[in-house]
Amino acid sequence: MRKNSMKNTRINGEVQKTLAEIIRGDLKDPRISPLTSVVSVEVAPDLKTCKAWISVYGDEKLQKATLEGLKSAEGFIRKELARRINLRNTPEIRFIVDQSIAYGVKMSKLIDEVNRKDDE
Length: 120
Known about the structure:
- This protein is an alpha+beta fold.
- It has four helices and three strands.
- The protein has one domain (6-119): 2-Layer Sandwich (GMP Synthetase, Chain A, domain 3), CATH 3.30.300.20.
- Helix 1 (6-25) packs across helix 3.
- The longest helix has 20 residues, at 6-25.
């Protein structure tokens, strides 16, 4: 299976949706922020590994705590993923904090600030 085949795209979408449901509803770890979302998922073509980009609304400390909580719950998350999605192999998940949303908000604020200065 190629990296960007239709089958792989469908698997990525299904894993992303299921991962978001597990994080939102099934995890009871207090370190994990309730404002955590799964931005993107990339499952390897051999279904052995998976990169999951997550976004956490909050400061750096909250992001690190959420990442630690997700890493410690990785076994549970993987077991739930295997139970909910019928795949040949259940991928090993690697969580990555996605900074793109925060970066976009920061850039938007800077652009607004420049526009305000031009109007004055």
